[in-house]
């Protein structure tokens, strides 16, 4: 099941390299064991953030995302990325430009100023999607790459919004990945690492941050985050796993903010799936930058080390 | 075939100089408000052969029509052009006016300067005016070339066929039969009755649905003028208005009616509906008529009031053990080797009444239908609350059989949904039946709370608004907002998460049972039948009426009519009203005994036809065939009554041997020349 190397242009986004560099390193290093070769997408800008940019000026959002797409087109590679917000911008703009000639022409008019042209020759994937896809990786291959299974730990999967919604604009959501309201593919990925994914109430609820809410009304955002934390811990979760650095920021930094503002203390470790995969493939917590997380991952690490 | 008049090709009078009259309609301000009608009128006078040009506020009014026939008489016109709305709306009007003036009605040509002119160029006065001039010039060019044409009359078979035997089909059939027309009623299920027979009560009167329908079902089953075929489907359709040859497949029922038994020489035999066979049948299956909530045997009737009262064998489930044959005894009603039979019926007109099914609400997975035990559909609720239903009218929740103490009703479950998953339209009767459901739980279960989650309450009918107030007074709780999500709690209760748009805040309400008022959609079979009869449908698959206001029962296919929900969502009163309308419309051609067909049919010019036969396969209406001509050559011939004048063959013929009347090549070329070369010809 190896030797078939799949190359992708790796779109980093902003939050992962700036706040959780461990996600970036984990994605690249774990990919090597799964024959997923992540080639840096040189010259990429912010995706741009769908909530912040899209809420203010859609045309800027289209143009900036298109520029990132053109960079990958010039490399002749499909894009892989690690963030739901990036996914919304890069995947959805790609989808819209492919299906809307008028919009494509308008965007190309802007790109002309930097001597670029969007052609619509590539696809965009979230890494989670590639892990799940049997043609690229698949659960069996993922399982094979694990040398230190994360047994004995209960985690709550947080899918995040932009990966699956809006359903009408997400091609994979209907068939490969399945139902958007009651999906199970993320749990299957986590189970492949040996951890125990718990079902919890209102699983598909937002982390609270997206769509500019965190920037606009932090108290409201934290209220939603707090509700998720209640539901996760009620189900016995000992850690949160996500597919999106921005959700991760909201859960991780948000717990500190909830403590500051409302005096509620959770101390629930928050990990990106790539970080968790890194641990399962034997990378050390320091290599994964887990010490840079706001909420200590120690209880989680103790649990998995105890489980071995 | 009755044939009146002469063939166009025979009218070889000396050609006369064409004299065309042009009439520009203002259509109030519809046209005159967006383009310069006076300029168009004056322009028309500059065109060759135009001797009269007039403008008038409403050409379709009586004075407007009088202008046309006065001008024909005064100026000896040979052709009429009216520049106005569309042929679809007013071609018949102006043809009549032309005929009243003494001209052949097919000497009239219409220029569309409203729908394709002033309406789309509302804010472009100059552009709209120029386009109107172009349209008039093109129409005049054709009008100079028009010939006299004579409609054919075809006889109409004194029989009708109704497809679908719900309340619409039953009502239509009974009306037709009472009007003395032999009517074939075709139903795919083993019994007639349709959706209405599955309902418990009807709003707003709370009449028992079966109590008002059963007598009708029984009467329809008894009427000598109705030939009822259940467990039957349309297999193929040939022909045209007046003479549709419809092939029916009768699925093997496995059980003989008394008549069928008599035909086989079994004296006093055939099914009497006694049920002895079902008693001994060892195979148990879910009864789909009860949505799987009750058992039935492999030999069964769907419910106690079926018409005809004849048992049916489900051959997919039957193990052919023969116990039923023994139990049936001397009646000898059971034939385990029965096969489907095909037969063809010739009818004059056809009414489609194929009804509806509910939208698969599990596709809106946020509501958890088919995922959570206690989320049911409104039709399932009807069976559970019905005294003749699987629970003898005791409403229970599926997970534990307990009586619910609180029920949430989710309206617009898949209707008025622009996400691309549900349906964009309003299903129209769900508001009212959900009010009725709320009333039923409040009435039947003391202390039970009813929550109605609604977007708007559409209580549109007679006494419906009053019914709405009544339910409010009975204490149902109304929450205005679409349900976002339904979550199942560990005790199998459901948490309904919605927005209350009146309070401007999210609400979460815990209930024991949720009822989804599912959107409705045409049945899958409707699409099959629609294609067989060549009936159009709208984007959402409802069958398309000929005109939404002025011809709501007809279709664009002559002789085919619509009744009931297959044409669009409607409640029982509207369904029955449309059924009576369709019966009336379908009986007109039958009672008049003949119909006129538009003389647009293709003609084969035999001396040009090489007999290649390529056109025969091209014709969508099977109107063409090959014959041996008098000189021994093989040539094509047209069955005029089948031809719809679509022009496919005429455009295709490699030898140019097919002449499309009213759309001849010289006429079309004259129009093209007029457009490109301007007024000079």
UniProtKB/TrEMBL annotation, chain A:
Q: Which InterPro entries match?
A: CoB/CoM_hetero-S_Rdtase_bsu (IPR017678), Cys_rich_dom (IPR004017), HdrB/HdrD_reductase (IPR051278)
- Domain of life of the source: Archaea
Pathway given in the UniProt record: Cofactor metabolism; coenzyme M-coenzyme B heterodisulfide reduction; coenzyme B and coenzyme M from coenzyme M-coenzyme B heterodisulfide: step 1/1
Instruction: Name any one GO molecular function.
Output: CoB--CoM heterodisulfide reductase activity
Q: State the Gene Ontology BP annotations.
A: methanogenesis
**What keywords is this UniProt entry annotated with?**
4Fe-4S, Iron, Iron-sulfur, Metal-binding, Methanogenesis, Oxidoreductase
Tell me which residues make up the Cysteine-rich domain. 9-88, 155-252
Q: What is its EC number?
A: 1.3.5.-
Q: What is its cofactor?
A: [4Fe-4S] cluster
Quote the Pfam families the UniProt record gives.
CCG
> Which PANTHER family has this protein been placed in?
COB--COM HETERODISULFIDE REDUCTASE SUBUNIT B 1 (PTHR42947)
Family that this chain belongs to? Belongs to the HdrB family.
The molecule here is called: 8-methylmenaquinol:fumarate reductase membrane anchor subunit
Gene symbol? sdhE
UniProtKB/TrEMBL annotation, chain B:
Q: Does the keyword Glycoprotein apply?
A: no
UniProt subunit comment = The ferredoxin:CoB-CoM heterodisulfide reductase is composed of three subunits; HdrA, HdrB and HdrC.
| Gene Ontology terms for molecular function | 4 iron, 4 sulfur cluster binding; metal ion binding; oxidoreductase activity
Keywords from UniProt, A to Z, are: 4Fe-4S, FAD, Flavoprotein, Iron, Iron-sulfur, Metal-binding, Oxidoreductase
Q: Which family does it belong to?
A: Belongs to the HdrA family.
Recorded source organism is Methanorbis rubei
Q: What is this protein called?
A: CoB--CoM heterodisulfide reductase iron-sulfur subunit A
Q: What does this protein do?
A: Part of a complex that catalyzes the reversible reduction of CoM-S-S-CoB to the thiol-coenzymes H-S-CoM (coenzyme M) and H-S-CoB (coenzyme B).
- The EC category is oxidoreductase
**Pathway it belongs to?**
Cofactor metabolism; coenzyme M-coenzyme B heterodisulfide reduction; coenzyme B and coenzyme M from coenzyme M-coenzyme B heterodisulfide: step 1/1
Which Pfam families does the entry mention? Fer4_7, NAD_binding_8
Against InterPro entries, the record matches this protein to: 4Fe4S_Fe-S-bd, 4Fe4S_Fe_S_CS, FAD/NAD-bd_sf, HdrA-like
Q: Which residues form the 4Fe-4S ferredoxin-type domain?
A: 262-292, 309-339, 600-629, 634-663
Co-factor(s): FAD; [4Fe-4S] cluster
**EC assignment:** 1.8.-.-
Q: Known SUPFAM superfamilies for this protein?
A: 4Fe-4S ferredoxins, FAD/NAD(P)-binding domain
